Amino acid sequence: MLSRNGEHINTHGSRIVVLLDTTSVLGELGWKTYPINGWDAITEMDEHNRPIHTFQVCNVMEPNQNNWLRSNWISRQAAQKIYVELRFTLRDCNSIPWVSGTCKETFNLFYHETDEAHGVKFKPAQYTKIDTIAADESFTQMDLGDRILKLNTEIREVGPMTRKGFYLAFQDIGACIALVSVRVYYKKCPFTLRNLASFPDTVPRVDSSSLVEVRGACIDHAEERDTPKLFCGADGDWLVPLGRCVCSIGFEETDGSCVACRPGFYKAYAGNIKCSKCPPHSFSYGQGASICRCEKGFFRAEKDPPTMACTRPPSPPRNLMFNMNDTCLMLEWSPPSDTGGRRDLTYNVQCKRCGPEPNHCQLCEEELRFLPRPLGLTNATVTVTDFSAHANYTFEIESLNGVSDMSTFPRQVAIITVSTDQGELQNFKVPSVDPKSVELL
């Protein structure tokens, strides 16, 4: 796992896919030589008892050499361009006496594409030359005496490849060569995870200047924020990341994965944000919660965001008072001691006109005039006019907030009863917030 500039990068597998490696073949290679007495196949065992397959030719004394060595059929798999890596030794012609006219210090590399193996058939004219291979370092007779062999490594590219497979062929024209190993491979951009999106193995285009655009797929419990894209380069490198995925609701990013929120935590929105602890008076028992449930007696209004604490209805108003003269009655009170944790506090005033018997009461809002109104008051006062003389009015003052309608518990109100028998200005204060009635004599 790698992290770069805040991006999580997780690459699986190698950028190289090996199609052939003669050093890993345990049995005989079975390569063909033409003519039979040209190249010699020599197999020796290394210190780990693994076979070392070497092909040698050194007919430097004879002119007009044309010795061919052909590989078995090699499946190209998904390759569009292949790489051929050769490791070999080559004798310095100047170190061999009397061969100045016949000794060479190069050999030729060929290939032939086919959709199936040709068996023993070999037609050199069908093969396409890749390159003439020369050694950077050649060895001499003195090197042989000192048991020093100078190993050369050469890599050649071939492409575009269009058939199902191919053969390699090596042409000796009079050199003293030992072909120690042949490795054939192609490059790919390996499966990778980046920005919470997965990108599959992708083979680059043959044109090294052209990039392959690949669209990623969001990992489990993630969703697209912008279309995730990467571009596969010729050397198997992922380049130019664009877009991203983000963890879905109920999941947070941890080490490049989207992990469910723990109990007691939640995440209400998709994004690269962490899970949050449940707000006050709420809980989540399971994993992956998108919202926390309210405790008993607490509620969340329809428009309350999930980040807001659960709240409850307010307690009743306190310190209910009235002032009265011949034309109007003013009711005043103090806000409740418990607002329920909300700021959207309002008040409703209900009027009842009662007769001699306390249980014989009728609603009287339509008889009276309330200023500014009887319902939805935002200030703790209301003025009442148009009341009748010699009547008893009972006023119920209720505190409300945004979750009052969601509660099933009986609502609590502050109550005051006012008698209009006396016309002089009167002042009275209710000494308690508990529901009660007060009559002015």
UniProtKB/TrEMBL annotation:
Keywords: ATP-binding, Glycoprotein, Kinase, Membrane, Nucleotide-binding, Receptor, Repeat, Signal, Transferase, Transmembrane, Transmembrane helix, Tyrosine-protein kinase. It catalyses: L-tyrosyl-[protein] + ATP = O-phospho-L-tyrosyl-[protein] + ADP + H(+). It is found in: Membrane. Pfam families: Ephrin_CRD (PF25599), Ephrin_lbd (PF01404), Ephrin_rec_like (PF07699), fn3 (PF00041). GO terms for cellular component: dendrite; plasma membrane. Residues 313-423 form the Fibronectin type-III domain. SUPFAM superfamilies: Fibronectin type III, Galactose-binding domain-like, Growth factor receptor domain. GO terms for biological process: axon guidance. GO terms for molecular function: ATP binding; transmembrane-ephrin receptor activity. InterPro entries: EphA6_rcpt_lig-bd, Ephrin_rcpt_lig-bd_dom, Ephrin_rcpt_TKs, FN3_dom, FN3_sf, Galactose-bd-like_sf, Growth_fac_rcpt_cys_sf, Ig-like_fold. Its EC number is 2.7.10.1. This is receptor protein-tyrosine kinase. It comes from Menidia menidia (Atlantic silverside).
